[in-house]
Specification:
Layout (H helix, E strand, L loop, with lengths): L1 H8 L11 H14 L1 H4 L7 E3 H4 L4 H5 L2 H13 L14 E3 L21 H4 L9 E4 L4 E2 L4 E2 L4 H6 L1 E4 L18 H11 L3
Antiparallel strand pairs: 1-2, 3-6, 4-5
Helix pairs in contact: 2-9
């Protein structure tokens, strides 16, 4: 319990690369107008219906009420006392708090979008395949390096065309101007 409490209250690590403060301030305005309604409001931490976000439903199809019931039973049979998993039908995905978002790549619930820059790209233009698992950070795209010999040597190929790996949906912010996208990315580095 003390460890869970400690981790819940520990602030996200600071972005380790330079941040353009002026551009980040402009990005806060873009964030407030386009992202805050889900990621910095009473809606944050609540389930957003899949029909609204449009992302791949594979996780919902593989983890639901019955899986939670079975997992809770196993834990209980082991004599472990804890708050159980929610035993209810799943209808969408939780609107996440974005603290430390710069370090949480790849994005979406299934890790199908390699960088925040890619997340701000229309879904049809997002990378179809990329290498996950390499630990070299890409400050320009706000994610990890996902292409090249080193990424291929250290990572695992992720193919968004496979069932459950889809990178569609969450089209929010994809129609922003290039200048607004750059400002938003700069602001997200400060969270």
């Amino acid at each position: 319990d003390w460890l869970v409490d400690y981790l819940k209250n520990k602030p996200a690590p600071k972005y380790p690369f330079p941040i353009d403060a002026t551009r980040a301030a402009q990005g806060k305005t873009v964030f407030d107008a386009n992202c805050a309604a889900c990621h910095a409001s009473a809606r944050t931490g609540t389930v957003v219906p899949l029909s609204e976000i449009g992302t791949d439903r594979g996780r919902l199809d593989t983890w639901g009420k019955q899986a939670a019931i079975e997992a809770n039973r196993v834990v209980s049979n082991m004599g472990i006392q804890r708050t159980g998993l929610v035993e209810a039908p799943l209808t969408g995905y939780v609107a996440q708090f974005l603290d430390g978002i710069w370090l949480r790549a790849p994005y979406l619930h299934n890790g199908s979008v390699p960088s925040l820059a890619d997340l701000l790209t229309p879904p049809a233009q997002r990378p179809q395949t990329f290498w996950r698992g390499y630990d070299v950070y890409d400050p320009a795209r706000v994610g990890f390096v996902v292409q090249g010999p080193a990424a291929e040597r250290a990572g695992t190929l992720y193919d968004t065309r496979l069932r459950g790996n889809g990178n569609r949906g969450h089209a929010f912010g994809t129609a922003l101007t290039a200048q607004d996208k750059a400002a938003l990315l700069e602001y997200l580095k400060t969270l």
